Amino acid sequence: MAKYTAFPQPPKLTRTWPDKRITRHPLWCSVDLRDGNQALVEPMGVDEKLDYFELLAKLGFKEIEIGFPSASQIEFDFARALIEGGRIPSDVSVQILCQCREHLVQRSFESLVGARKAIFHIYNSTSPVQRKVTFGMTKEQVKAIAVEGTRLVKAGLPSVPGTDVALEYSPESFSNTEAEYALEVCEAVMDEWGACPSRKVILNLPATVESSTPNLYADMIEWFCAHLTRRGSAIVSLHTHNDRGTGVAAAELGLLAGADRIEGTLFGNGERTGNMDIVTMALNMYSEGIDPGLELYELPKIAAAYAGFTGMEIPPRHPYAGDLVYTAFSGSHQDAIKKGMELRSRNPDPDAPWEVPYLPLDPKDLGRDYEAIIRINSQSGKGGVAYILKESAGYDLPKSMHPEVGMFINRVADARGKELDAASIRALYEGEFVNVASPLTLLSFNELPDHAKGQTTWRSRVRYRGEEREIVGTGSGPIDAFVRSLAQLGIEGVSVESFHEDAMAAGSDAFAAAYIQARGPGDSRAWGAGTDRSIAAAGVRAVLSAVNRGLGKD
Q: Are residues 202 and 351 in the same domain?
């Protein structure tokens, strides 16, 4: 393993960031239209970028990097279309990226003519590897590039009268640069710009290639902030990448370490393994009760728009936005979620603390549908099946019925070898348990209550094994009377072990549902369900379903 070496420790410091908490959102800057766009197999055209810009503005971004206008005609035309078309909200700054070269700086200023607010972002790489391999330059020569770029931007300001221009400087590959040298270069840029509290410089400190654990990046940020001589004259910005899969974590810890501003993209699009995912970081804050400063309450629509613009797919397990992140297949997870959701539904306060196991936030807050929370496959539990039936069809199964229904659904899922959607689960349940009409079919009935005696006579017309018969029974109620009448068909020894009922709907479409567990000869038991506009008839149909399931269907 001599080919690879451990990341060096940053300069020693007295760490304060591990004891801090994030309490407010940073300044957000979207780089989707530049950093994200350059990573696409097919970069967006002007019209697509205009629509994407409109989406970003609606989400609440106040700083949006729109491209590299000196690098291509499309990028230049896009900047002009935004400005000349009056498409930039008055409180939004457009940001452009430019290398520290005179003709590129001049071309970039031409793209900004007429803008109200702009951020002119210059950069050059400062790491030892870049100095040695790419440029073959000394430290002084690399620093001189940054200072000269700053001078060129300052000299170009008169070419955009009426435009409020802020300077952003990035020592590219900051996280792989000696901390003392990165600070030295940034201080030189501030000196050349004449930075002061009323004319701040944005110092953007990228993890261009993520090469260490997030805590070491946070150490570098805290050391930098502590040693910057005019901290009040700078906005410290972070631009992390995801080479090690910890881009969000690095940005969060960097924020604790003293940063003010975060650059990133929606859903982490970017070169190699991508940029820091602003959606994830913002919703991490939201899940802890912090206003993220972005409007992410229609996340499925945002995700669909992103996919349409970029042609990129959001993985199904992507935090917050993936198709399966609010889905549980495990039986124990499903049962816990079901209980949490039911408890939540009984609380009239919509702002009550969110306490649902396995769900860090309420999917409804992001425009997600509760129907997607629990889905069923062969690994699923009885609680999940019951939850689906209640949410999708209104069947509120008694808890003691859950195991029998759950095992039946799971056997089907196992046999089919795939997930069952809500419609399939409902159809299977109704076909197996509800108003089961074979081998004993109820053709018609007549209920004759005798209130004086506290009895009911139940007269049924039935078909049993191909023969129509009339049977009559008297008992304490419709169900007892019907059970007694079954003896006339030779069906004896039936008793009702458990009975539950509920209303499935209100108003003119009201239906009653009844759930009965019947016991038969030989201690056999079976559940059945019945639905009817009459609760008495629903109970009788539930008995019939249980008896038919116990007898076996023809």
A: no
Asked if 256 and 163 sit in the same domain, the reply is yes
For residue 329, what pLDDT is reported? Answer: 83
**Residue 502: in which H helix or E strand, if any?**
strand 495-503
447 pairs with which residues across the strands? 458
Residue 429: both structure tokens together: 């349940």
Token pair of 75 as six digits: 């990028």
Residues facing residue 81 across a β-bridge: none
- List 374's β-bridge partners, or say none: 328
Q: How many CB atoms lie within 10 A of CB 298?
A: 15
pLDDT for the residue numbered 9: 82
The answer on 444 and 409 residing in a single domain is no
User: Would you say residue 445 lies in a domain?
Assistant: yes
Give the residue among 400, 429, 405, 398 at the shortest CA–CA distance from 500.
398
**CA 53 – CA 296 distance, rounded (Å):** 16
Query: Beta strand 455-464 with 440-450: parallel, antiparallel or unpaired?
Result: antiparallel
pLDDT in tens, 384-433: 888 889 888 899 999 999 999 999 998 998 898 888 888 999 999 999 99
Contact (Cβ atoms closer than 8 angstroms) between residue 501 and residue 512: yes
Domain span at residue 352 reads 331-432
On whether residue 319 sits in a domain, the answer given is: no
Is 366 in the same domain as 487?
A: no
Asked, for residue 539, whether it belongs to a domain, the answer is: yes
Phi, psi of 391 (to 5 degrees): -70, -35
| Phi, psi torsion values for 292, nearest 5 degrees | -75, -10
Q: How far apart are CA 357 and CA 248, in angstroms?
A: 24
Q: At what angle do helices 382-393 and 331-345 cross, to 10 degrees?
A: 40
Both structure tokens of 399? 């808890």
CA distance 187 to 195: 10
Residue 415 is which amino acid? A
Structural tokens at position 508: 């003119």
Residue in 29, 416, 460, 436 with CA at minimum distance from that of residue 261:
29
CATH of the domain at 148: 3.20.20.70
Q: Pairing mode, if any, of strands 512-519 and 93-99?
A: unpaired
Q: What pLDDT, in 10s, does the model give residues 152-167?
A: 999 999 999 999 999 9
User: Is-contact 327 372, C-beta < 8 A?
Assistant: yes
140 and 203 both lie in a single domain: yes
Quote the crossing angle between the two packed helices 179-193 and 214-227, to the nearest 10°.
Answer: 40
Into how many domains does the chain fold?
3
Specify the residue for token string 């109200």. 116
> Which amino acid is present at 6?
A
Residues in the chain: 554
Residues 187, 119 share a domain = yes
Q: Note whether 121 and 50 are same-domain residues.
A: yes
Residues 133-188 pLDDT 10s: 998 999 999 999 999 999 999 999 999 999 999 999 999 999 999 999 999 999 99
Structure tokens at 502: 């509920």
pLDDT of residue 543: 95
Residues 356 and 206: their CA atoms lie apart, in Å, by 37
What gap in Å lies between CA 336 and CA 399, rounded to an integer? 14
Q: For residue range 72-124, list pLDDT tens digits in order.
A: 999 999 999 999 999 999 999 999 999 999 999 999 999 999 999 999 999 99
Sign of the Cα torsion 544, 547, 552, 554 reads negative
